[in-house]
Fold:
Amino acid sequence: MASQGRKVKALFYIDAELYEQFRKAVTLRYQGYRWGAYSRAVEEAIRQWLAETTPDYEEKVISKERNDSKVVQVYGQVKRYLLQNYYVDLRPGDRVPLGHLREAIMAVRGVHEVTVRRWLRAFHEVGLIRPAGTSVWELQE
Structure:
């Protein structure tokens, strides 16, 4: 979802308690600290704030960035594989067994275990899927 363009370093002063809440929320969302997690969370918050407060802010900009990303493209390939092999339809909120997702990722990106884990993590971080149980994922898009 984040733009692949130029980045800038920004310095802000915010309430200390709010900052601690933010750190905890980011750690929970990304299941521990990940490089760039704070930046992604701040960018997401700024985009949401702009969408809510600026009447002429175009949601299309966010959609285009997200649709053009490699993660979203691979996710589309995975969904096509699932539709061809297991499902008649897949909609947001549908639940898919981890085994089906793993098989689909292996079919379109490679069979190495690290590859499968990385793509699952990428889909989750972008917000395309979320865990819905020990071996079930819920589609968000």
Q: What stands out?
A: The chain has two domains: 16-59, 69-139. The chain has a mean pLDDT of 83.
